[in-house]
Design brief:
Pathway: Pyrimidine metabolism; UMP biosynthesis via salvage pathway; UMP from uridine: step 1/1; Pyrimidine metabolism; CTP biosynthesis via salvage pathway; CTP from cytidine: step 1/3. Its main location: cytoplasm. GO terms for molecular function: ATP binding; uridine kinase activity. This is Uridine kinase. The structure is a single chain. This protein has 208 residues and is α/β, with parallel strands linked by helices. It has a single domain, classed as 3-Layer(aba) Sandwich (Rossmann fold). It contains six helices and seven strands; from the N terminus they run E-H-E-H-H-E-E-E-E-H-H-E-H. A hairpin with a 4-residue loop joins strand 3 and strand 4 (95-103). Helix 4 packs across helix 5 (155-174). The longest helix has 20 residues, at 155-174. The mean pLDDT is 95. It binds adenosine-5'-diphosphate and the ligand Nc1ccn([C@@H]2O[C@H](COP(=O)(O)O)[C@@H](O)[C@H]2O)c(=O)n1. Adenosine-5'-diphosphate is lined by residues 11, 13-19, 142, 146, 187-190.
Length: 208
């Protein structure tokens, strides 16, 4: 089997990574492209051994919060044509679920997450690196809406987390990775020309 083409979609929380990835992959499937999506979020370290009050203090925007070594192993396995079992994560309890999903190797693998380009172990595994360059104030507005409706947070907790970790870690780890990307996407998940360019690149390089 041809090696999978692995694409990283990175950028700040709320920058449009998920929407861009979902749109890209839906459209790739419509043209019969065999594509698998992996989320870096699923690889947050488990914290069931900690009290809830301790879990709430964790810095989730630092690279150490992720089990990048497991994600790297999974990407190497997929490159070798092997199946993987990826974990699932709950943002309400800050723990991994008792659930694994088995997936087989695909021709195209799209991985999306905030700190993919900050990991020296992951970087060599990516064939294409995309950075979503969305102004931080827009990201914050989107994050407030999402965290209140989907992740069981309060406005106060979102504001405190943003000031304490989200914003400083963005400046320390995420934004400095922009220059490592092959493609920088402005205007979030709805940037039609950027989607077309990446689809064309995938068609040309993954020998589908
Ligand atoms: N260009 C855009 N215009 C309007 N809304 C957008 C755009 N890009 C993303 N969004 C919306 O912003 C929110 C956050 O986007 P999402 O893709 O979940 O971000 P991320 O995965 O980077 O955290 C979602 O509700 C998404 O639908
Ligand atoms: N238990 C957790 C784990 C992560 N976060 C926040 O999620 C953000 C990354 O996810 P996106 O889908 O927004 O890219 C990251 O900024 C973490 O702060 C959390 O709040 N709680």
């Amino acid at each position: 089997m041809t090696l999978p083409h692995i694409i990283a979609i990175s950028g700040a929380s709320g920058s449009g990574k998920s929407l861009f990835t979902e749109t890209l992959c839906d459209e790739l499937r419509q043209i019969d492209t065999d594509v698998l999506v992996l989320c870096e979020d699923h690889y947050y370290r488990d914290q069931t051994h900690l009290e809830m009050s301790e879990r709430e203090k964790t810095n989730y925007d630092h690279p150490n919060a992720f089990e990048h070594e497991l994600l790297a192993q999974h990407l190497r396995d997929l490159k070798a044509g092997k199946s993987i079992q990826y974990p699932h994560y709950c943002f309400k309890t800050h723990t991994r679920l008792q659930k694994l999903t088995e997936v087989t190797a695909h021709r195209v693998v799209v991985v999306e997450g905030i700190l993919l380009l900050a990991s020296p172990e992951l970087m060599p595994l990516f064939d294409l690196k995309v950075y979503m360059d969305t102004p931080l104030d827009i990201c914050l507005l989107r994050r407030i809406q999402r965290d209140l409706t989907e992740r069981g947070r309060t406005l106060d907790s979102v504001a405190k987390q943003y000031e304490k970790t989200v914003k400083p870690m963005y400046h320390q780890f995420i934004q400095p990775c922009r220059h490592k990307a092959n493609i920088v996407v402005t205007q979030g998940g709805k940037n039609r020309p950027a989607l077309e360019v990446i689809k064309a690149h995938i068609r040309n390089t993954s020998k589908l």
